[in-house]
Amino acid sequence: MKGMNIRTGRVIEGDQHLIQTIETYLFTLRDTRVLIRDYGVGFEIDALNTPAHRSILIAGIFEELLRFHNNIYVLEVTATPLEDAQNPNTQNNFAITISASSIPNNNIIKVMGVI
């Protein structure tokens, strides 16, 4: 796979392109793309930082990646709360980590982000 980095405009390929594709997909709401209505997730990623919401988010990410990406095998999805006593603005933030194996080369990739 080959594509363009959405931040720099430079050519990316392989696992870097796959990671960017996953990030773009997860932060796009379904029915918001004009020509690709089925692209994107059916829920908003920026959920509340509670154990129940994190569990629903993890299950939703698994389901959406299985539905859309036939070139990865999802190994693990975690949502870890970020609690920084020095910065009260982080009390509702959490870190999402997706571990997956890319098909067909079986490279382990990690997609990480803070919400």
What brief labels describe this structure?
115 residues; alpha+beta; Nuclear Transport Factor 2, Chain: A; 3-stranded antiparallel sheet; two-stranded antiparallel ribbon; 5 strands; 26% helix; 28% strand; globular
Summarize the structure in words.
This protein is of the alpha+beta class and 115 residues long. A hairpin with a 6-residue loop joins β1 and β2. The strands form two sheets. It has a three-stranded antiparallel beta sheet, covered by helices on one side. A two-stranded antiparallel ribbon has the order 1-2. It has one domain (2-114): Nuclear Transport Factor 2, Chain: A. The protein is 26% helix and 28% strand.
Q: Largest sheet, if any?
A: 3 strands, antiparallel
- As residue ranges, the low-confidence spans are none
CATH architecture: Roll
Residues in β-strands, percent: 25-35%
Q: Enumerate the strands of the largest sheet in spatial order, edge to edge or round the barrel.
A: 3-4-5
Strand and helix order: EEHHEEE
CATH fold descriptor: Nuclear Transport Factor 2, Chain: A
Structure summary, number of beta strands? 5
Classified by CATH, the class is Alpha Beta
- The overall number of domains is 1
Describe what is shown at a glance.
This protein is α+β, with helices and mostly antiparallel strands and 115 residues long. It is built from two helices and five strands; from the N terminus they run ββααβββ.
List the topology elements.
Elements: E1 2-4, E2 11-13, H1 15-26, H2 51-68, E3 72-81, E4 94-102, E5 108-114
Antiparallel strand pairs: 1-2, 3-4, 4-5
